[in-house]
Amino acid sequence: MTKTVTKSGKLIIEKKGPVTRLTLNRPECHNALDRELSQELHDALRAVDIDRECRVMILTGAGNTFCTGDDIKEFNDWKPEDAEWQVRLYQQTVTILEKLVPVTIAAVDGVCTGGGLELTLSSDFVIATPRSRWGMPEINWDITPGWGGTAKIAKYAGRRKAKEWNLLGTLFSGAKAERYDLVNRLVEPDQLESEVERLTEIILSKHPQAVRCTKFFLDNGADLDYANVMAFEGAPQRVKFGQGIKDFVEKESRDKRRELLDGFWFD
After folding, report:
1. How far apart, in whole angstroms, are the C-alpha atoms of residue 124 and residue 259?
2. Active-site residue, 138 included
3. Of the candidates 39, 172, 177, 187, which has an alpha carbon nearest to the alpha carbon of residue 121?
4. Is the pTM of this model over 0.85?
5. Catalytic one among 36, 40, 53, 118?
6. Does residue 81 carry a catalytic annotation?
7. Residue 77 — very low, low, confident or very high, per pLDDT cuts 50/70/90?
């Protein structure tokens, strides 16, 4: 495994074979994204984007907390052009995250608000703890969400909850986040790491090209009409990725995949 700490010390990058982990490392302020960390996260995601070996990317935070989004303290020093540049950078960052070829997992403990919540909305899987706290509090600081927190929450949880959370700025629990489809699974804090590892192992057990194409279908077909979705899914190469069909018919080497899935998120 290779471990790199960025020049500022605010982002830890760990790479182990096909898995890359990015850890936001400002726990003293709930991993708020100041200008340095924002740029380093952006650059790290761009590096993952061109890393052909990477199959799973995990995003998490140091210090039993995830991310509060913008570092509000910096706003007092910003000029108008600074704000414009920063919002543009954030939007590019979540777009890169959302369109990554590797499967992305956000591991959330503690605070997950504002831009931190918006980062999870651009991830493929979100595993969180019951003690995690969620919210879109921007309106309390007289600003507005800038990285998709209005439209994306509405797509996941519906307009009613999107208006409640964005217009009131209230915090809500991890249980509510799971109930409204912002979270795949809630686990106790001491199980968060092992659950991420289990999910990663399951993803890596699949054929890489089958995973890539299926993720592409899901990401790009959701907003298309039915006929175009069927055109996506009807591509002839979809059954020529690996040995899966042969293994299924001849009952070879499928036991590992079944064992990994046995009871996993069954409820």
Report:
1. 23
2. yes
3. 177
4. yes
5. 118
6. no
7. confident
